[in-house]
Amino acid sequence: MKFRKKPVVIDAIQWFQDILHIAVQKCYKADTGQIVSVKVLGYDTEVYAIYTLEGWHEVTPGDWIIQGVKGEFYPCKPDIFELTYEAV
Hints:
three-stranded antiparallel β-sheet; 7 strands
């Protein structure tokens, strides 16, 4: 069987480090490569991440931050965003 995504209008903003966004937190990667809360200090690799319904997801400059249908936020790479969404 095949399915088509229901048409849904979303809120999204393309994120760069100089743009503040409520969902983006400065985080640090532990030796394990896992993204942890900014409250844990002492790691030398700075990253930015969004806590989603599936856990932490790294966000890099140029990614789109999408607000989902339940108010949740998640990042989307620019190439995937362009293939999936169009301006309304």
